[in-house]
Specification:
- By secondary structure, this protein is an alpha/beta fold.
- It has nine helices and eight strands.
- An eight-stranded parallel β-sheet has the order 7-6-5-4-3-2-1-8.
- The two termini are about 30 Å apart.
Length: about 230
């Protein structure tokens, strides 16, 4: 077993254990491997190990790796980074899911780029801090943004995403996020996804119902120096 395979197996075992502890079926949880700064060759290795959900934070990397790995069957590309509206068209062409829609302008840009493309699954990123400079819609704006997205027929609102803030126990932050997810679900019963949990806090996310985990270094190993 390679080091990569061993790390993947270890994380999957930990996910399964956390799911069972929470009384959940591990099969209901999607593990996304974040390959930020790693080469496309790592995606190919992961694909050989059965990985089909891959996450990227930057449009340039997403586009380059999706192009390089276009021959791989069944890869679902998740864009999880902050998205600028000017890069929305490029993200739309490469991504299967966008996790970081946090304002109408971004939703509109993704929609405008969707002509003749399949409907795009999107999640609303929610800001779990009091800092308006952080990515994500403020909690008081959730319903307004959800209503806007639901009016765009090339987008499919699937749920919410957030990053646990520093300086707060992740379990507390994720409890709030689960409440926000319920508000979106009441508006759209197909919005059942909750994207939360990374290498250091995925067990806490699973405990509150996370359906999608974004895990990087615990599987990929240390990131190469940024190009």
């Amino acid at each position: 077993m390679t080091d990569l395979a061993a790390r993947l197996a270890d994380v999957d075992a930990r996910i399964a254990a956390a799911a069972r502890e929470a009384g959940r079926d591990p099969a209901d949880i999607t593990r996304i491997v974040v390959t930020k700064f790693h080469p496309a060759s790592l995606v190919r290795e992961l694909h050989g190990l059965g990985v089909r959900d891959v996450g990227e934070n930057r449009q340039q990397e997403l586009t380059a790796k999706a192009d390089d790995c276009a021959d791989l069957d069944g890869v679902r590309w998740h864009f999880i980074g902050q998205l600028q509206s000017k890069k929305a068209a490029a993200v739309r062409r490469a991504a299967t899911v966008v996790h970081s829609v946090d304002r109408p302008k971004v939703a509109d840009a993704l929609h405008a780029a969707g002509e003749e493309l399949p409907v795009l699954d999107v999640l609303m990123q929610v800001n779990l801090t009091d800092d308006p400079g952080r990515g994500g819609v403020a909690p008081e704006g959730i319903e307004s943004l959800a209503e806007h997205i639901l009016g765009l027929d090339s987008l499919r609102l699937r749920g919410v995403m957030a990053v646990a803030p520093l300086g707060e126990p992740p379990a507390e932050a994720f409890e709030r996020l689960a409440g926000y997810a319920d508000r979106v679900y009441r508006m759209s019963p197909q919005a059942t996804w909750l994207s939360a949990g990374m290498t250091g806090d995925f067990a806490e996310a699973i405990a509150v119902g996370a359906t999608h985990l974004r895990i990087g270094t615990a599987i990929t190993g240390a990131r190469p120096d940024r190009a």
